[in-house]
Design goal:
By secondary structure, the protein is of the alpha/beta class. It has a single domain, classed as Alpha-Beta Complex (2-enoyl-CoA Hydratase, Chain A, domain 1). Helix content is 46%, strand content 17%. The chain contains 10 helices and 9 strands. It has a 6-stranded mixed sheet with strand order 1-2-3-5-7-9, sandwiched between helices. Strands 4-6-8 form a 3-stranded parallel sheet, covered by helices on one side. Helix 1 links the parallel strand 2 and strand 3. Helix 1 runs parallel beside helix 3. The longest helix is centred in the middle third of the chain and has 20 residues.
């Protein structure tokens, strides 16, 4: 599902998701993504990470095989793992840029909220939190990151009303920072990621640690609580 390559003269690690289907977040995919972020952060020659989907699809969210199953603990563990991944991207000492190549719903949209910069595709693509529409309540950690990153004007419609948006509307709502033509998404994300070479890495890491400490701590407590329900 996950492949990597060095781009932008080696300064950017491009991580691509492609399982041929919904690009679902399984337990193993979540663990692998965290490893790639950590390894990039530990490499002084890498300035940023870009996480990209395949054509038309960024991620459809959590693995439905687990989410529709009868094992409640497995469901709780997967959702907690997802929260840990979003927090991992949000608090990483290295910038994480999302190349949202298409649809991004549920955990896919939440991962966007954890990324520093988000570039998405203009077109008939849907981005958002559809949990209420499918009979689910957002976990506490998801509410925390949604309140932090989404526009206050869109928060109720995007969360409680499960409203899905795309293109410029997704930018206005706060899921994306830019929307470009579908064939330009990855190139633009890499271009923006490469600009982080202009920053001093330790200063960036220290600043972001202070900037995001309150939200990070809240999410960590909420993820831990979910594992012990």
């Amino acid at each position: 599902m996950i492949t990597t390559e060095r781009v932008a003269d080696g300064a950017v690690l491009l991580v691509k998701l492609d399982d041929g289907k919904a690009n679902a977040f399984t337990g193993s995919a979540i663990a692998e993504l965290k490893v790639h972020i950590d390894e990039a952060a530990a490499d002084d020659t890498i300035a940023a990470v870009v996480v990209a989907g395949r054509e038309g699809r960024f991620s459809g969210g959590f693995d439905l095989g687990v989410m529709r199953g009868d094992d409640i603990q497995a469901i709780l563990d997967l959702v907690a793992d997802g929260g840990d991944l979003v927090r991992h991207a949000y608090t990483a000492p290295i910038p994480v840029v999302a190349a949202c190549t298409g649809h991004a719903v549920a955990a896919g949209a939440l991962f966007l909220l954890g990324c520093d910069v988000r570039v998405g595709a203009i077109g008939d693509f849907k981005i958002g939190l559809n949990e209420v529409a499918i009979g689910m309540v957002l976990p506490d950690w998801a509410m925390t990151i949604a309140k932090e990153r989404l526009s206050k004007r869109h928060l109720q419609r995007c969360v409680a009303n499960a409203r899905l948006v795309g293109g410029s509307e997704a930018v206005d709502a706060g899921f994306l920072d830019e929307a470009v033509a579908p064939d330009q998404v990855i190139d633009r994300a890499v271009e923006l990621a490469a600009q982080f070479t202009l920053l001093q890495p330790k200063a960036y890491a220290g600043t972001m640690l202070n900037f995001r400490s309150e939200v990070s701590a809240a999410m960590a407590d909420q993820v831990t609580a979910m594992r012990t329900l």
